[in-house]
Amino acid sequence: MAADASKDIAVNVSPPAPSTDEPMYGGYSRFEIELEFVQSLANPYYLNHLASQKLLTQPAFVAYLAYLRYWTRPPYLKYLTYPGPTLKHLELLQEERFRQDIMSPDLVQKLAEEEMKAAVQWHRE
To answer: Which of the four, 2, 4, 40, 100, has the lowest number of CB atoms within 10 Å?
Structure first.
């Protein structure tokens, strides 16, 4: 049931449009805050931290992760510094099983190693 609610929220809420009259939160725009947060999802240790804080079991937070999928599309996609792991983890976080499994230090280590291998391979090409 929570999955259905998160789909509805993701569809009905529009992503922020960068503008000059956008309200500021602590000196940052909503766009900047969401960009920083979505990019932090590239870090598997941060995902483990979110899980250890029980955020990944809260329906509102899961709905927020679904809402953040707008970063997978233009024009937002171009702002991501690490699009590969950021988008991969954002998609994995849509799955309840992954949100549970990320508590495992073994999975965190595996994801970190995969990212290191991908970075080395990218630099070789």
So the answer is: 4
